[in-house]
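Handoff note, outgoing to incoming analyst
You'll be picking up this chain. Sequence as last confirmed:
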Amino acid sequence: MNFIAIQSIYKFEMSRWFRTVGQSILSPVISTSLYFVVFGAAIGSRFGESIGGDGGSTVSYGSFIVPGLIMLMLLTQSTANASFGIYFPKFTGTIYEIMSAPVSYLEIVAGYVGAAATKSILLGLIILVTANLFVPVHIVHPVWMILFLLLTAGTFSLLGFIIGIWADGFEKLQLVPMLIITPLTFLGGTFYAIEMLPPVWQKLALLNPVVYLVSGFRWSFYGISDVSIGLSLGMTLVFLGACLVIVARIFQTGYRLKQ
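Most recent structure output, in case you need it:
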């Protein structure tokens, strides 16, 4: 394993991210703060302390949406950072220099995906701190919270890497996140519990893979979940495995890399 190569790619991606702090960090934090103001204050006042937690305790609506908002940001930012990170070398042609260097495919993926996952995790932690300025936040299972944070960031960074390879134009980089990931996140229990829906819609919601991610992450905070923690973890690992298989296949065939 060439750790120098991984470190070089990782440092380059991170330095590019820090050069655009306003867009990379301030923009997601400000937009998430607006969610707290609109949903937590305006809409949350109509819910009251009515959402159950561990041991019969209740959680305010503002606190309830914190894990969902972090997950929303995590999914979109992981995908966007990884997709742009690998697409830009394709666009400029420097991807051929990377592929001709004594660097394995595994090391290339580790560098780009590792940097994208790090960016989204840092943003997630920043938003978690920001959330405490608006609502009280308690983490009942911190180890599980960190595990879901790492798995989700890594999985969707891999998905973003796949999108970056697949895309042949800048507009396609936004196609999947805007038309698929973001809608699925909003419909995946970010702002509500699945049990609030009518029975038919509850069954349909379980077809949404994001439900399992949000549910498991929220359970790590308050002990509240729409599905079992084992099922949430299992679905996350299945998605991670599928992304790994697709990435491996891309490098085996040279799909959109050797043109």
